[in-house]
Design a protein that fits this description.
This protein is α+β, with helices and mostly antiparallel strands and 304 residues long. 35% of the residues lie in helices and 21% in strands. It folds into 3 domains: 3-90, Rossmann fold; 100-116 and 182-301, ATP-grasp fold, B domain (D-amino Acid Aminotransferase, Chain A, domain 1), CATH 3.30.470; 120-179, ATP-grasp fold, A domain (Dna Ligase, domain 1, 2-Layer Sandwich). Strand 8 and strand 9 form a beta hairpin. The chain binds adenosine-5'-diphosphate and magnesium ion.
Length: 304
């Protein structure tokens, strides 16, 4: 038995699950599992279906690595079950997970703390669509609780508002129309209370959509991100604050946009960001001198 397998005991890596992001989660889970095995950790994969609680309570696990994205896995649900089972798990607790998954509640919290986030309207029913007039087009139409850019679109013309809303509404009762920030996109990985080097994302698509995230070879990732040291530190500090205000902890990632005047705008917190070898948190970690297997072990160590 090596030192890590002694330290962590038997580890369940939860992956897959029932959300719209199942396929991405399987990629994350497999990458995490093989990194843990490579490091000598006694890790086992569990596909988090409806029988997940049964599987977890019967396996003599000592710790859980949550590699689930989206609803059921990133929203506090599985975290609650793990609390009941007294199993330490990676990432944010029930409250931090639930708040971070809810883009609307998260924005409300940031606003109350005077942190910058784009203006928005909540569109629950068709009647609400006229409130979008209070924002300037373009707006970003998004389901309040999805990830991976699912159900989202950029609306440039007023006549496209309804269709974009209907598209987002397929995924969520609650839809947000958010002021579109023209400018550069950045993301800040957070590990154990510290911000890693900032990554700049560049795509030729309208925005960082599903294709730009997972399919396109044309998406560019810049790390170092090209900002001055001072600006980078400001963005890192803002991301850390946004992360904590949302109640998130352990590890995660904060997405931001920067407008033409250099103002940063908070977009969202991810409490279980992608963890394939091509993902953003591993990229930022590498820039800080931390290779993928070491990163995975560090995340596992935050499970308490
Ligand atoms: N207000 C906005 N202005 C400009 N681009 C946005 C805005 N909101 C989202 N985006 C773009 O859409 C992408 C996905 O949005 P995000 O809210 O992060 O949802 P997801 O949970 O699907 O990642 C972002 O990475 C960014 O490219
Ligand atoms: Mg995002």
């Amino acid at each position: 038995m090596n030192a890590l397998s002694q330290q962590f005991g038997k580890v369940a890596v939860l992956m897959g699950g029932l959300s719209a992001e199942r396929d991405i989660s399987l990629l994350t889970g497999k990458a995490v599992l093989s990194a843990l095995l490579e490091k000598g950790v006694d890790a086992v994969a569990i596909d988090a279906g409806k029988d997940v609680i049964e599987k977890l309570s019967q396996g003599n696990y000592e710790r859980v690595f949550i590699a689930l994205h989206g609803r059921g896995g990133e929203d506090g649900t599985i975290q609650g079950a793990l609390e009941i089972l007294s199993l330490p798990y990676t990432g944010s607790d029930v409250l931090g997970s639930a708040l971070s998954m809810d883009k609307l509640r998260c924005k409300q919290l940031w606003q109350s703390e005077a942190l910058p986030t784009p203006a928005w309207k909540v569109l629950t029913e068709e009647n609400d669509l006229k409130t979008v007039e209070a924002l300037q087009l373009p707006v970003m139409m998004k389901p309040a609780h999805e990830g991976s850019s699912i159900g989202m679109s950029k609306v440039v013309n007023a006549e496209d508002i309804k269709q974009a809303w209907q598209q987002a509404k397929k995924y969520d009762d609650s839809v947000i129309a958010e002021q579109f920030i023209e400018g550069a996109e950045y993301t800040v990985a957070i590990l154990d209370g510290e911000a890693l080097p900032v990554i700049k994302l560049e795509t030729d698509n309208d925005f960082y959509d599903f294709d730009a995230k997972y399919q396109s070879e044309q998406t560019r990732y810049l790390c170092p991100c090209g900002l001055s040291e001072e600006q980078e530190q400001q963005i890192q500090a803002l991301a850390l604050k946004a992360f904590h205000v949302a109640g998130a902890s352990g590890w995660g990632r904060v997405d931001l946009m920067m407008d033409a005047e250099g103002n940063a705008w908070l977009i969202e917190v991810n409490t279980v960001p992608g963890m394939t070898s091509h993902s953003l948190v591993p990229m930022a970690a590498r820039a800080a001198g931390l290779e993928f297997p070491e990163l995975v072990v560090k995340i596992l160590a935050t499970a308490a």
